């Protein structure tokens, strides 16, 4: 398994934090419909957990005048790894947003924040308290955990190189198109096929955030529940080739794409060789053939609005 362990002690994706103007609408979307549990609020913050996950929360909503990505948080093995990575990044010219310190958000812990090459705020943390979670039951169509986050970049290869060089992420696979070149890089920090992916988009923004369901039946039930509620379905249900995971994409009330997935591949070999998949092959996008063919129209739905938070630290 050593080839799948992160060189700098990054362990997993913890949470994605979003600022939203339609705060109450979003809270009810994520709790009543998407299947997350609000575990607490703090002023203009709402902390949303996945029932099957020990993470304190997987989505944080912040009431704000404009929509933005506040940050993406990854776990680290221990405070020593946090300190070492912060020192390394600073010495290599990466702009830190905060120095390693006690975290003031739910679950506490010890961490720091920095800007990635596109201006996203990334948090690395250790010693965050876990929460009482439970086994999601058969037929229960709610997220077990956060699966991965995909971000748009107008230079996805430059962004991929940043995560490889500075954060030790490893490339799992790439999607490629004849006219557009490299379209998406899937990157891992553990044995899951990807915890992060970088998509080609016209600007820096959230492409989608994905949630793992218990199994195929639960994934289809969840997909159906959200469809019946009249939420705009962008694409799916289907099964991707790269990562082998199922997918259904929906737009949340503020236009961020959210995905239900299951059965994401786990890479158990050190000798994994990344593949390049041609997006012109219908089997690349959907091996089942149940989703509409990928089109410019579908792709555009996940471009999202240009992120207002680029190189701007969130207030909390």
TrEMBL record:
CDD domains recorded: BphC5-RrK37_N_like (cd08362)
Domain VOC intervals: 12-127, 145-263
Pfam families: Glyoxalase (PF00903)
PROSITE patterns (UniProt xref): VOC (PS51819)
Record PANTHER family: GLYOXALASE FAMILY PROTEIN (PTHR21366), METALLOTHIOL TRANSFERASE FOSB (PTHR21366:SF31)
Protein name: Oxidoreductase
């Amino acid at each position: 398994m050593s080839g799948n362990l992160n060189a700098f002690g990054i362990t997993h994706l913890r949470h994605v934090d979003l600022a939203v103007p339609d705060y109450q609408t979003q809270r009810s979307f994520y709790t009543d419909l998407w299947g997350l549990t609000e575990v607490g609020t703090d002023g203009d913050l709402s902390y949303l957990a996945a029932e099957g996950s020990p993470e304190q929360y997987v989505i944080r909503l912040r009431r704000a005048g404009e929509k933005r990505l506040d940050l993406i948080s990854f776990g680290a093995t221990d405070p020593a790894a946090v300190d070492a990575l912060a020192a390394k990044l600073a010495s290599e010219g990466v702009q830190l947003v905060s120095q390693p310190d006690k975290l003031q958000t739910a679950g506490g812990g010890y961490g720091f924040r920095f800007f990635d090459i596109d201006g996203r705020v990334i948090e690395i943390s250790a010693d965050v308290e876990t929460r009482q979670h439970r086994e999601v039951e058969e037929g229960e169509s709610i997220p077990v955990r956060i699966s991965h986050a995909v971000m748009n970049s107008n230079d996805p290869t430059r962004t991929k190189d940043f995560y490889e060089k500075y954060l030790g992420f490893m490339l799992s696979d790439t999607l490629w198109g004849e006219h557009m070149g490299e379209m998406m890089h899937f990157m891992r920090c553990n044995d899951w096929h990807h915890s992060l992916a970088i998509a080609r988009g016209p600007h820096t923004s959230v492409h989608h955030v994905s949630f793992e369901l218990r199994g195929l039946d639960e994934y289809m039930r969840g997909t159906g529940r959200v469809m019946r509620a009249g939420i705009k379905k962008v694409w799916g249900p289907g099964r991707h080739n790269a990562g082998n995971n199922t997918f259904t994409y929906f737009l949340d009330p503020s236009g961020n794409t959210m995905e239900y997935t299951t059965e994401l591949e786990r890479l158990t070999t050190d000798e994994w060789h990344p593949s390049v998949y041609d997006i012109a092959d219908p089997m690349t996008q959907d091996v089942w053939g149940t989703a509409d063919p990928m089109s410019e129209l579908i792709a555009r739905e996940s471009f999202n609005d240009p992120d207002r938070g680029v190189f701007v630290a969130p207030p909390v």
